[in-house]
Amino acid sequence: MRKITLFVGAWTDLGLEDVQIRLDGRSSILAPHLDFGNRRRGWDFRSPGHGQAPFEEILRELTAIGYRGPLSVEWEDNGTDRLAGARDALAFARRIDYEPSAPSFDRQPKYSEK
User: Fold this and answer.
1) Angle made by CA atoms 85, 90, 93, in degrees to the nearest 5
2) How far apart are CA 45 and CA 17, in angstroms?
3) Which domain holds residue 95?
4) How confident is the model at residue 114, as a pLDDT?
C-alpha cells in the first residue's frame, strides 16, 4: 500500500473495482480469449466489497496523503444482477467513504469520569 504515497497529488478519482483471483493450476491470469464469468479464467470482476481488493487499506493510505476526491464505481460482475449489484456497490461505497478525523487521535479531548 505504501506505493500509493508515491503519487501524492496525482489522484483525482478513485474507481472502486473488485476482483476475485482463483489460480488452481488450470486457470490463468492471461486468458483474454475466455469470456468474463468463464470458470477457466484465473480471475474475474466482482462487485466492490465482494472480491479481494483491500479497499479499507487503500482508502486509509489515500486519506493519509490528503486525497479528498470522489469514489466512483466501475461495476462489472457476471455473477450478480446489474440492478442489485449497483445498489449493493453504492451502499458499499457509502459505507467505506468516511471523513478523516480533523485532529489527530492523540489530540482528541480527554474526558474524565465523574
Assistant:
1) 125
2) 7
3) 2-17+47-99
4) 56
The answer to whether position 79 is within a domain reads yes
pLDDT digit string (tens) for the chain, length 114 residues: 566 666 667 777 788 899 999 888 888 788 778 888 888 888 889 999 999 999 988 888 888 888 888 888 888 898 899 999 999 999 999 998 877 777 666 666 666 665
How many domains, in total, are found in the chain?
Answer: 1
Which regions of the chain does DSSP assign to beta strands (E)? 14-16, 18-21, 43-46, 71-73
C-alpha closest to that of 23 among 37, 40, 42, 39: 42
Query: Is residue 22 assigned to a domain?
Result: no
40 in any annotated domain: no
CA separation for the pair 89, 77 (Å, rounded): 11
User: Is 70 part of a structural domain of the chain?
Assistant: yes
Nearest Cα to Cα of residue 8 among 87, 65, 86: 65
